[in-house]
Structure formats: C-alpha cells, structure tokens
C-alpha cells in the first residue's frame, strides 16, 4: 500500500509542476526536490526495517519454543532410561 502511495505522490508532484511551469524542464533530483526524496527514502527504509524486526521477533519466538520442547524431550528420555531411580525418588 505504501508503494502505491509513493507512486501517487511522485506522479502528482510531477504533474503539478508541469502544469505550472510548462516551458521549464524540471529535474527530479534538483535541490528543491531533495528534501522530498530524502523523506521518501527514509520512509521506505523505515518500512523495510520494520518488516525485518517483525521477522526477527517471529523467528526468536519459534526458536525459544523449539528449544523448550527439545529440553522437555531430553528430560523425558532421561526419565525413560532410568525409571526405577525416578520412581524411587518420587515416593521418598
């Protein structure tokens, strides 16, 4: 959605200046437009970084869940190898 909005702004920005100054050629990277393009670039970078942070948080949650399951499984297999010791410790 934000890329469509970016394209819309660029299109309208170009059309607005072409209607006002029809005889002058306007460069997209002139000094007047530089702040606008820095803003657009920073918003794009922010969007990409937020997606990466979201994916990092999701992968960390999956890793911690799988690690917890792995520890429980190791503990379970340890109890299955020595059931007499485990049961005798539970009833003392």
TrEMBL record:
One of its GO terms (biological process) is mRNA processing. Coiled coil: none annotated. Signal peptide: none annotated. InterPro entries: Maturase_MatK (IPR002866), Maturase_MatK_N (IPR024942). Pfam families: MatK_N. Residues 1-92 form the Maturase MatK N-terminal domain. GO terms for cellular component: chloroplast. Keywords: Chloroplast, mRNA processing, Plastid. Belongs to the intron maturase 2 family. MatK subfamily. Usually encoded in the trnK tRNA gene intron. Probably assists in splicing its own and other chloroplast group II introns. PANTHER family: MATURASE K. This is Maturase K.
């Amino acid at each position: 959605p934000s890329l469509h909005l970016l394209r819309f702004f660029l299109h309208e920005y170009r059309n607005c200046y072409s209607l006002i100054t029809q005889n002058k050629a306007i460069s997209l990277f002139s000094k007047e437009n530089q702040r606008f393009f820095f803003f657009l670039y920073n918003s794009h970078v922010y969007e990409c970084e937020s997606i990466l942070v979201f994916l990092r948080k999701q992968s960390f949650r999956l890793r911690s869940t799988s690690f917890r399951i792995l520890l429980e499984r190791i503990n379970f297999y340890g109890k299955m190898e020595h059931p007499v010791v485990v049961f005798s410790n539970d009833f003392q």
